[in-house]
Design a protein that fits this description.
By secondary structure, the protein is of the alpha+beta class. It folds into 3 domains: 122 residues, Periplasmic binding protein-like II (D-Maltodextrin-Binding Protein, domain 2, 3-Layer(aba) Sandwich); 88 residues, D-Maltodextrin-Binding Protein, domain 2, CATH 3.40.190.10; 67 residues, 2-Layer Sandwich (Alpha-Beta Plaits), CATH 3.30.70. 28% of the residues lie in helices and 32% in strands. The two termini are 28 Å apart.
Length: 293
């Protein structure tokens, strides 16, 4: 019996941590936490979880301390831009914890376009990504590196603009800032080192990855059932979002069928209204708990 285990690094607190642990739960994996809350063991698969700061995760994976990591694209890309001999690579884009790295400027100020950033000072916690963006746009600007509360820099007159993470935009509004340009669209990534592991470790990683893909597909998918006239099947099928081939079953009423379909996109009220207008009735939209291709 193999004693091989893999170690996965997760953010220890915050929205990314909650989303990552929830993904593991949806994969049927239960995390048993130790007293210090930094090291956890999964019972169902040979996996250990290390809870660390988000900016430690890329280096832990690149250096081989951990075999996998879940981290935001913003942190991964910033580290990749600035590190030498960086070997962590993206295994899967996970889609959750979405945000964006944006340049923001004071409302009603003198900066109204990317070109206006020339000869300004921009405060940021992401100097590598900012410099990459400025270079790509042929802009000369000074970078002021800050580790927190970047949004106050223009108000304190120590910077003309900021480059920071934006989720809802509420923090920008509270500081009288407005988005000028998106630098990077970010989401959670599953990363691993470029080098190959033993066949046993690769098998564990592939098994975990398949469960993650299934859990994420189930989260985004819905099972849709309805009754409809057979003559309306083609029209209704075209209205079902992300559906390849629905199941059609005859009902005990001439000319009527039941349509069952897995929709891999969100089913909104507007979609249901269009289905009803096409002749569908008794429309049910149900969540999917688990899914495997």
């Amino acid at each position: 019996m193999s004693t091989e285990r893999i170690r996965i690094a997760l953010q220890k607190s915050g929205r990314m941590a909650d989303d990552s642990l929830n993904l593991l739960k949806n994969c049927g994996l239960h995390v048993t936490r130790s007293r210090d809350q930094l090291f956890c063991r999964i019972k169902e698969l040979p996996i250990d979880v290390l809870l660390v700061r988000d900016d430690d995760i890329p280096n832990f994976v690149s250096s081989g301390i951990c075999d996998l990591g879940i981290v935001g694209d913003n942190v991964y890309s910033e580290m990749k831009c600035g590190a030498e001999n960086f070997s962590a690579t993206v295994l899967e884009r996970l889609g959750f914890s979405q945000c964006r790295l944006s340049i923001a400027v004071p409302e009603n100020g003198a900066i109204n376009s990317v070109a206006d950033l020339a000869n300004t000072t921009i405060a940021t916690s992401y100097p590598n990504l900012l410099q990459q963006f400025l270079k790509a746009n042929n802009i000369q600007a000074k970078t002021l590196v800050m580790t927190g509360s970047v949004e106050v820099a223009p108000r304190l007159k120590i910077a003309d603009a900021i480059c920071d993470i934006v989720a809802s935009g509420a923090t920008l509004t509270a500081n009288n800032l407005t988005e000028l340009q998106i630098v990077l669209q970010s989401e959670a990534l599953l990363i691993r080192p470029q080098q190959k592991f033993s066949p046993e470790k690769e098998a564990i990683i592939n098994r975990l990855r398949a469960r993650m893909q299934g859990a994420l597909r189930a989260e985004d998918s819905k099972y849709v059932m309805m009754n409809a006239p057979r003559v309306a099947v083609d029209q209704i099928t075209k209205l079902l979002p992300g559906c390849d081939s629905p199941t059609i079953m005859d009902l005990n009423k001439e000319g009527m069928v039941a349509i069952h379909a897995v929709c891999r996109e969100s089913v909104f009220w507007e979609t249901m209204e269009r289905l009803q207008a096409a002749g569908a009735s008794a429309i049910l939209v149900l969540p999917i708990e688990k899914m495997m291709a």
